[in-house]
Design a protein that fits this description.
With 522 residues, the chain is of the alpha/beta class. A 10-stranded mixed beta sheet has the order 1-5-4-23-20-19-18-6-21-22. Helix 2 crosses helix 4 and helix 7 packs parallel to helix 9. The radius of gyration is 23 Å and the shape is globular.
């Protein structure tokens, strides 16, 4: 490890990918690289060493920050460059300060049982470094955390909080051992590590089996009866009980989704926890049961989100649920998952926003390796990082207010998962070696969560000349700085200038297969 660290430090000193004047180069604590194969690299962390993410400290007018991550091995390389009064390239991207859209809520990941199991498998010091890597000011500064209500497939077995048939008053409701051991401790550590409050939101996968038409937490099944009936009332109270029990552990929630992937429970042989809702059922459940229950219990300010499913359903669900004034008054936003995004137009998001501009759009789940033909864990794969970046930029450019990754950490096989539905994760834990690996996906996420902070406002960006291999999104941050994220999907470096019309020109060279965050102050 010592030899590799000397090499990477030397490279950071001599490497200059820019043809423009570099005033300053800083990498904070650099990555300890481990090459899986050529062009496939992870950064190794253990109990005594872990790289950090550089902060964007203010620079004087006439200077700007560039932070670069690339397939070639750069990880959060930070440079301070000099702006120019005239463009230095033949391509200029204009940032439109007067063209604004949504305000950012944040970015984050999910505190699943699997994540907790893998974090717990590490020594205490490495556990702290993993949580800090995501939530502290030395890390990605995540401000979002998703928490499954009871079990999901990334548990070791199905369980609910009340498995006593007929207990409609939920007198036997209690959190599971998994909450006490694998969720709450790491949520508390994240809250302590984070420099700002974390927006936590909860999502249920299934009601207890006895509440459902198929008497099973998996497969095709819905709540017994109709909205307004005793089982729907009990299920609404289940949400309240969950919030109250977590509150006893000093954990408060910013939001909830009414149901994780309600379309799953309409499928005959769905293999893991699911519960079906049609949009009409969810509309009526919210207005007759869940909304009133939350309000009467003192949770009227919680951000309730509908759908929490793939984008193909977003227009239908928005129209049916949000067109009802009684249901709509309880609802804050529409949640979407990234699955099938590659074959669905992102413009559906803009269409949904235009239909109901008073409701926010929020991306609540994403992961690589979920398709049957994919490798589950592909250590060091840049294409997976680029896929994340493309999706996030496309979402942000279509009114989405934030983006949530799936499991915070998984093992070397992409689990545990009780139905072997293993996938990839930005952090992979190697418990045998007492270390964890930060994948390219981790650094890609940081280019958004670390620098496009909550309260940032989307700005329009207009290129002088379109380049299909360059994707870009721009934001005005609360401290009156601009943060521009530039993704290069091509092999070759691209030289371009950024300008806001008043601060001069920011000439940059974006390496092939890389992402850059460019920040300057007005």
């Amino acid at each position: 490890m010592a030899a590799s660290m000397k090499i990477v430090l030397f490279l950071f000193k001599i490497l200059s990918i820019y043809s423009f004047n570099v005033l300053y180069v800083k990498s904070d604590v650099p990555c300890a690289p481990l090459y899986i194969r050529p062009q496939y690299m992870v950064c190794v962390c253990n109990s005594t060493y872990c790289d950090t993410a550089p902060s964007a400290e203010k620079v004087p007018k006439g200077q700007f920050l560039v932070i670069t991550t690339s397939q070639s091995g750069l990880r959060f390389q930070k440079q301070i460059l000099q702006s120019s009064s005239v463009p230095k390239t033949n391509v200029t991207y204009s940032i439109k300060l007067n063209v604004t859209r949504q305000t950012i809520l944040g970015f984050g990941g999910a505190f699943t049982d699997a994540a907790g199991i893998n974090i717990a498998a590490l020594p205490d010091a490495a556990q702290e470094l993993l949580i800090n890597s995501y939530y502290s000011n030395n890390g990605l500064e995540y401000t979002i955390g998703r928490v499954p209500m009871a079990s999901c497939d990334f548990s070791t077995h199905p369980y609910s909080y009340d498995d006593v048939p007929g207990d409609l008053n939920l007198t036997k409701f209690s959190l599971a051992p998994e909450d006490i051991k694998y969720k709450i401790p790491y949520i508390q550590k994240a809250i302590k590590a984070a420099p700002v409050p974390i927006k936590l939101f909860a999502s249920p996968w299934s009601a207890p089996a006895w509440m459902k038409t198929n008497n099973n937490m998996t497969g095709k099944g819905s709540l017994i009866g109709q909205p307004g009936g005793p089982y729907y009332k009990a299920w609404a109270n289940y949400f309240v009980k969950f919030l109250q029990e977590y509150e006893k552990n000093s954990i408060q929630f910013w939001g909830i989704t009414a149901q994780n992937e309600p379309s799953d429970g309409l499928e005959f042989k769905f293999p893991f926890q699911a519960m079906g809702f049609t949009p009409e059922q969810q509309r009526d459940f919210i207005k007759m049961d869940l909304g009133p229950a939350l309000h009467s219990a003192g949770y009227g300010n919680i951000s309730l989100m509908i759908l929490d499913d793939v984008r193909i359903f977003i227009i239908t669900w928005a129209k049916i649920v949000l067109s009802d004034p009684e249901a709509s008054r309880y609802i804050s936003g529409v949640a979407t998952h990234w699955y099938l995004d590659a074959v669905l137009p992102y413009s559906l998001l803009t269409d949904a926003h235009n239909l109901f501009p008073d409701k926010f759009l929020f991306a609540t789940e994403a992961c690589e390796g979920s398709m049957p033909w994919q490798v589950k864990v592909d250590l060091g794969a840049w294409d997976r990082a680029a896929s994340y970046a493309h999706d996030i930029i496309s979402d942000l450019n279509n009114w989405v207010t934030g983006w949530t990754d799936w499991n915070l950490a998984l093992d070397m096989q992409g689990g545990p998962n009780w139905v072997a539905n293993n996938v990839d994760s930005p952090i992979i834990v190697n418990s045998a070696k007492k270390e964890f690996y930060k994948q390219p996906m981790f650094y890609i996420l940081g280019h958004f969560s670390k620098y496009i902070v909550p309260g940032s406002v989307w700005l329009g960006t207009k290129p002088m000349k379109e380049n299909p291999l360059i994707e870009i999104t721009s934001f005005l941050r609360p401290d009156k700085s601009l943060a521009v994220t530039v993704l290069n999907l091509g092999f070759d470096a691209v030289n371009l200038d950024l300008t806001d019309g008043i601060s001069g020109f920011m000439p940059i060279s974006v390496p092939g297969h890389s992402i850059q965050t460019v920040i300057w102050w007005l």
